[in-house]
């Protein structure tokens, strides 16, 4: 099948994308790519090593795992019952790092988009990705 993309095939693409690779970050990358965006990945020179960097738009995207980044009030953020304190410390330090990265990036004029993994689950992915695209239109 030809690999041609346009707006009409967006929802088709999304379902196809999901079947191919369910890694949340890949969903976002494939969508952006299919819509002609060019990006770099995991830029170590930027605070927080953003997952996706859209230099042209001076925008970075973080795709956050709900557990590792402590997504508040999220069902996927459940601190394990064993070594609970250790996990809490670990996740809290991740959150602090995230906040510091956001501050530093903002200071340098970057726009920051954070996408939580739970928003990329099958039931919500289309809406999440559509609203992401809208930010650039
Ligand atoms: Zn979540």
Brief characterization of the structure:
The protein is α+β, with helices and mostly antiparallel strands. The chain has helices at 10-20, 24-34, 84-107, 122-134, and strands spanning 40-41, 52-54, 59-64, 111-116. It has one domain (7-132): 3-Layer(aba) Sandwich (Endonuclease, Chain A).
Q: How would you portray this structure in words?
A:
With 137 residues, this protein is α+β, with helices and mostly antiparallel strands. It has one domain: 3-Layer(aba) Sandwich (Endonuclease, Chain A). The chain has four helices and four strands, in the order ααβββαβα. It has helices at 10-20, 24-34, 84-107, 122-134; strands at residues 40-41, 52-54, 59-64, 111-116. The chain has a four-stranded mixed beta sheet with strand order 1-2-3-4, sandwiched between helices. The protein is globular. The model is unreliable at 15-21 (pLDDT under 50). The site of zinc ion (ZN) has 6 residues, from loops. Zinc ion binds at residues 66, 71, 74, 76, 116, 118.
CATH architect. name: 3-Layer(aba) Sandwich
Head-to-tail CA distance between termini: 28 Å
Q: List segments where confidence is low: pLDDT < 50 over at least 5 consecutive residues.
A: 15-21
DSSP summary, beta strand count: 4
The sequence of SSEs as H and E is HHEEEHEH
Q: List the total number of helices.
A: 4
Computed CA radius of gyration, to the nearest angstrom: 16 Å
Query: How can the largest sheet be summarized?
Result: 4 strands, mixed
Looking across the biggest beta sheet, what order are the strands in? 1-2-3-4
Bound molecules: zinc ion
Helix content: 40-55%
CATH superfamily: VSR Endonuclease
Give the domain tally: 1
- Determine the strand fraction and express it as a percent band: 5-15%
The overall pLDDT average reads 88
This entry's quaternary arrangement is single chain
- Supply the helix-strand structural class: alpha+beta
- Fold-level CATH name: Endonuclease, Chain A
Coarse shape: globular
- Supply the CATH class: Alpha Beta
